[in-house]
Amino acid sequence: MKVSRRxxxxxxxxxxxxxxxxxxxxxxxxxxxxxxxxxxxxxxxGNTPILHQSELIETETVDDNWQEGDVRYQGxxxxxxxxxxxxxxxxxxxxxxxxxxxxxxxxxQADAIFLLVLDPHAxxxxxxxxxxxxxxxxxxxxxxxxxxATDTLQLCLQHGYxxxxxxxxxxxxxxxSKLFYDLPISGYCSVNMGxxxxxxxxxxxxxxxxxxxxxxxxxxxxxxxxxxxxxxxYYLRNRDITVDESARMRLERQxxxxxxxxxxxxxxxxxNLTLPVGLYHILEKYMVTDVTLDEVSxxxxxxxxxxxxxxxxxxxxxxxxxxxxxxxxxxxxTALYELILNVFYEEVEE
Length: 350
Hints:
By secondary structure, the chain is an alpha+beta fold. It is built from 8 helices and 15 strands. A hairpin with a 5-residue loop joins strand 6 and strand 7 (about 145-155).
C-alpha cells in the first residue's frame, strides 16, 4: 500500500521530534552524570584515614614504593583506595516528616547507622553496620546549641545534639569519621523511620525469614514473610529493651533487611536506571542529605553492575557493658583496624 507524500512528511517530523527529545534527554542525563561525578570526587580528594597513627602500626619499612599514609600490618604493605566513595546512612527515631528543631538537644537519636562503600576498582558494594550504642567521642551541646564538652557516649546520641537536620547529620558524620580513624565520607543521608513503609512498598516489599519475634506485629521467628507497610517498620525499628544486647540483635535484622532490599533494588536498577531518582523523590520530605540529584544520577550509572552480597556486609566486633543503666558497645580496636584495612585499603605489591 502506497503512503502519500504528506503522510510521509508527517511521519518524518514525528520521528525527528522523538529523536530530538531522546537526544536532549540523553544529553541532560549525561550532563547530570558528569557534574555529579565531579562534585563527588572533589569532596574527599586528597583526604586519607590516619591508620598510621594507630598503636597497632608496625615499624615502617620505607621503600621506593612507599607513599605518605601507607601502613604495614602483619608484614603486608597497604594503601588507602582514594577512588572509594563512602556514604553515611542514618535511620532517625522519628515518624513524622523532617522539621528542624530549635532545641539543641532534640534532634532525634540515630537508631540505624550504616556506611555504604562503593569500590570502583573491585566494582563491589560493601556495607558496614555500626552499633548505635558504640561508645565513642560525642560532642555535647546545651539547649541553646552551645558546645559543652566532648564525652564518651553512645554514638546514636550525636544526632540528637543538633537541629534534627543538616547540623545533626554533619556532627554525626564527624563522629563516625573519627571512630574510623578520620575516614573520608563522601556524603550523608538521614531518613526518619516513618519513611520505611514508603520505600519498602516502592519495590514491592521485602521477602525474608524473620530472625526474631517482632512486637506489634504477627511476625514470629522463623516465619517466611513478605514485609509490607508498617510490618517493615516494626521489623527494623522495634526491640525489647529488657533483653541484653537487643540493639545488636536489631542491627542483625537491619543488616538482613538491607541485604535483601539492596538485591531487589540492584535487580530493578539494571532495567530502570531512574529508580534511585524515584526513591529520592519518595524520601524527600523524610530525608536530610547532601547528595544531590545529579550525584544520584551518576551513582546509579556506576553501581548498576557492581557486585553486592552477604560477604560484603560487615559489623564491628566488640563487647557490650552496662553504662549508667544503658548498654554501651566497645569496639575491639584490632578488629576495627583490620576491618578498615579490608574494606578501604588495598595491598601494595613490592
